[in-house]
Every structure is written in structure tokens, then in C-alpha cells.
Design brief:
Radius of gyration of chain A: 13 Å
Shape of chain B: globular
Oligomer: heterodimer
Distance between the termini of chain B: 36 Å
Largest sheet of chain B: 7 strands, mixed
Largest interface: A-B, 25 and 27 residues
Radius of gyration of chain B: 13 Å
Number of strands of chain B: 11
Strand content of chain B: over 45%
Helix content of chain A: under 10%
Strand content of chain A: over 45%
Number of helices of chain A: 0
Number of strands of chain A: 9
Order of helices and strands of chain A: EEEEEEEEE
Largest sheet of chain A: 5 strands, mixed
Structural class of chain A: mainly beta
Chain lengths: ~110, ~110
């Protein structure tokens, strides 16, 4: 299974942009890049996903490297409610259904 | 639209007891998953299902059994609970794999004494 690598933790200030990196050097052509976040005592929630092109939604933006071996989740203006663990995972559009979540990045947002 | 619902949300068991966790989704999703999360860890896949009547092993299947008799329900069973199975269990579902988002339940906290 293709793996992802993320920093254990990152810190940001409120109302500043946050760039959360993810490396996935063994990504295959059918793998979609997904981001989820988990607030304390809650289940993970979907943030954004993409295949090859950069993506934007109301929550965040996803920037995907041209070779697809890395990606960056961008929170344009961090709020205290964005403090969470962020998971970058690869989900295959082929026959591999085993979705593995690493430890993710713990984002701390300072007021 | 309730999404993914897990019951019970909390349970305390004694070693050797059995129990079943129920996951229900009302989104007509084909794929369903059971994960466990231990303190400071990510989510580890226990079992998954790619459709009604099908199940498969994930990363940490030992000590658990599952059934998917109805498309909307995915049951996780512990036949003889052990303290090592103390964890928070999350169910998830998705319409398909690949470019389809996962929807998670709120979790079930299980303590085995």
C-alpha cells in the first residue's frame, strides 16, 4: 500500500494561512489524495480530495505537485476551530480498498 | 439524513464477555469500514466490506468478526473481549472507493476490564 508522510505537529496563529505538507512518493496512478481532520473526541471529517489538479472548496485548498509525489493542504485563514489532527491518505480507485491512516499532523492554532 | 450512526457510544465489558457494535448508514453506500484508534495513534483498519454479503480483513482483524447482511448495516463483533481491545472504534462508509469521500461515525468507546 502506498504510504504518506506528514510532520507530527505544526503551529499557526489565528487568521494566518497554514500549509500542511504530505509526502507520498510511492503514489500510483489510480490513487486519489484525500485529507481528513479529526477534532478532539470526534470522528474524522472530510476536508478535500484530488487526483492531479489543484482543488478548492469552502474549507481549504489542495495543491498537488506536478509529479504527484507530494501535496499541501492550505487553510487560508486559520481559526481556533481548525485546531485538529489532519490526515493525508491515499485512496485507490482500483482494487485496493485497505485505507490506512497514519498518525497525521497535530495542528495547534494560537489566538 | 443521519449519515453514519454507531451504537452503543460507550460500553464497559469484562474480559471474556462478548458484544456487538452496530454501524448503520442511510446513504446507500457500498463500502463500509471498521477502524480502531488507540491513544496517540492513527486509525487502524479492522475489517471492511465492499458490498452486501461481503467482508474482508484489514490491518488488525484478530479477535474480531464482522457481518454485512444488509447493505445499510455493518456489525463488528467481539466474541471474547480482551483488555487489549480497549479502544475507540470508528465506522466509516463511502459510495465507492477512489474519488468518493469517507463518512465517519462519532465513535464507540469500549473499555475491557
Amino acid at each position: 500500500d502506498a504510504k504518506t508522510t506528514q510532520p507530527n505537529s505544526m503551529e499557526s496563529n489565528e487568521e494566518e494561512p497554514v500549509h500542511l505538507p504530505c509526502n507520498h512518493s510511492t503514489i500510483s496512478g489510480t490513487d486519489y489524495i484525500h485529507w481528513y481532520r479529526q477534532l478532539p473526541s470526534q470522528g474524522p471529517e472530510y476536508v478535500i480530495h484530488g487526483l492531479t489538479s489543484n482543488v478548492n472548496n469552502r474549507m481549504a485548498s489542495l495543491a498537488i505537485a506536478e509529479d504527484r509525489k507530494s501535496s499541501t493542504l492550505i487553510l487560508h485563514r486559520a481559526t481556533l476551530r481548525d485546531a485538529a489532527v489532519y490526515y493525508c491518505i491515499l485512496i485507490s480507485g482500483g482494487s485496493n480498498y485497505k485505507l490506512t491512516f497514519g498518525k497525521g499532523t497535530l495542528l495547534t492554532v494560537n489566538p | 439524513n443521519a449519515g453514519v450512526t454507531q451504537t452503543p457510544k460507550f460500553r464497559v465489558l469484562k474480559t471474556g464477555q462478548s458484544m456487538t457494535l452496530l454501524c448503520a448508514q442511510d446513504m446507500n453506500h457500498e463500502y463500509m469500514y471498521w477502524y480502531r484508534q488507540d491513544p496517540g495513534m492513527g486509525l487502524r483498519l479492522i475489517h471492511y466490506s465492499v458490498g452486501e454479503g461481503t467482508t474482508a480483513k484489514g490491518e488488525v482483524p484478530d479477535g474480531y468478526n464482522v457481518s454485512r447482511l444488509k447493505k445499510q448495516n455493518f456489525l463488528l463483533g467481539l466474541e471474547s473481549a480482551a483488555p487489549s481491545q480497549t479502544s475507540v472504534y470508528f465506522c466509516a462508509s463511502s459510495y465507492r472507493t477512489g474519488g468518493w469521500e469517507l463518512f465517519f461515525g462519532e465513535g464507540s468507546r469500549l473499555t475491557v476490564l
